[in-house]
Amino acid sequence: MRSRRGTVAALAAMTLALTACAGNAEEPETEEPAAGEEEPADETADFPEGSTMAELAEAGSITIGTKFDQPLFGLVGPDGVPQGFDVEIAKIIAAELGIEEDGIEWVETISANRESFIETGQVDVVVATYTINDDRKERISFAGPYYEAGQSILTLTENEDIEGPDDLAGKKVCTVSGSTPEKNLLENYPEAEVVPFGTYAECIDPLRNGQVDAVSTDNVILAGFAADNDDLEVRGEPFTQEPYGIGLAKDDTDFRMWINDVLEAAYEDGRWTDAWEATAGSVLPTPEPPAVDRY
Amino acid sequence: MDVIVDNLPTYLQGFASTLRLTLYSGALALAAGLLLAALRVSPLRPLRAFSAVYVEVLRNTPLTLVFFGLVFVAPRFGLITPLGFWTAVICLAAYTSAFVAEAVRSGINSVGIGQAEAARAIGLTFGQTLGEVVLPQAVRSVIPPLINVFIALAKNTSVAAGFAVVELMATGRRLGTANAADGLWVLAGVAIFYLLITIPLGVIAGTVERKVAFSR
């Protein structure tokens, strides 16, 4: 299915380039164009010349930054190909550009290097459990959100002291150096002792060994660890809102709006839900897709 | 630029942590390195072998792996160290001592063999020969390479940022998250504080070198 859609999209792109006429009706999967797509469809005409979309479609390849160590969202298996919800979202975007899965180059982006990878052009887009916030918007732009997560707490099943963020006072809490969860903990729970590591996976061993009392980050990340390990448990309701967006070069508004259109189309025709159920949906309930923010 | 001034207290905390890491692990590495160098030239073969193996293993292992070994691998064998500062000091000292040992050994070797032979001939023990005759002469040629090792150590402390120590680098990452728009300036601030450690070290090296200079 996916490859057929990719071919159709590629053909559509070529036809459009030749005839310069708009034609969203050629998309077989989309019953009706998504709401936001209607007005700009004529002027943007799918891939206007010189746009990022046209360049990527032309090249037939795209470089996508994602997490390589995030169960359910972006996790590299033994075959070296990342899998997860972020990866599926990225594939939907690539497919809309007419890029086959072979044409996607996956680059590992960790929390600390995502902005600079986008700024220096080492990646075209970043889909990596990437929280939209105003500080980051000063360096890059965000399409989406395509999912809304929230910070939560992971601890050992046998731990009875920690039921919510207020119980973290005086406890050692592992998180990633330079991440948003670290910032939240420092600002809102200054009583907690933050123990920063390089990746969340590195927090798990110290948690088991009793060197830290809890791990704190977005609930979806923690759910991945809890799903794989019977001795770990996510505690309490999420205490922040973390809208996950797709990072791209600052002020590339055409590309951002186009990705927003793609996301809305994917909400509409069920591709978003399919992607969720095939990945994170195995552990977490299927949520309503969040409204994209066309700032 | 403002971001550095506004966050000066935070920077200073990170700087203090980096400075402490450098001083503690530097002192430990110097002591351990001297001992290793002494073992390396000792008359007992097993001691020489131990020192050689230690130096080669630590010198040829990436520092990050040394940290991994103590932080993630050792607990699996029941050795659980308290996370943070002291674990980092142990890793940095263990790693740097190998380089100190090599620098000191080269200094010892630069002292003519006749000196040691003469010392033994007049009845000095091995310890006396090393302590009273060879090392005082070796120190002069060892200071510059040793300062090099300590400058490298000051910069190597940044590896601890990934292992539960909030030093300059980790502080820089935190500030980078809080001030994403000024990311470059935040990093420039981090670099300046490293220079505050490494440039004086270089100046000291130059001064000491001139002070102890002698002509053979």
Which keywords apply here?
heterodimer, A: 295 residues, alpha/beta, D-Maltodextrin-Binding Protein, domain 2, five-stranded mixed β-sheet, 13 strands, 36% helix, elongated, B: 216 residues, mainly alpha, MetI-like fold, 79% helix, 0% strand
Low-pLDDT stretches of chain B: none
CATH top-level class of the largest domain in chain A: Alpha Beta
Percentage of residues in helical conformation of chain A: 25-40%
Alpha-carbon Rg of chain B, integer: 20 Å
Low-confidence stretches of chain A: 18-45
In the CATH scheme, what's the topology name of the largest domain in chain A?
D-Maltodextrin-Binding Protein, domain 2
How can the largest sheet of chain B be summarized? none
Query: By CATH's scheme, which homologous superfamily of chain B applies?
Result: MetI-like
- Output mean pLDDT of chain B: 90
The first-to-last residue Cα distance of chain B is 51 Å
Helical proportion of chain B, percent range: over 70%
> What is the percentage of strand-forming residues of chain A?
15-25%
* Order of H and E elements of chain A: HHHEEEEHEHEHEEEHEHEHEEHH
Question: How many helix segments of chain A?
Answer: 11
Q: Span from first to last CA of chain A?
A: 33 Å
Going by helix content, strand content and strand pairing, the class of chain B is mainly alpha
User: Based on DSSP secondary structure assignment, what is the total number of beta strands of chain A?
Assistant: 13
Name of the CATH first level of chain B: Mainly Alpha
- Named at the architecture level, the CATH assignment of the largest domain in chain A is 3-Layer(aba) Sandwich
Spell the H/E element sequence of chain B. HHHHHHHHH
Overall outline of chain A: elongated
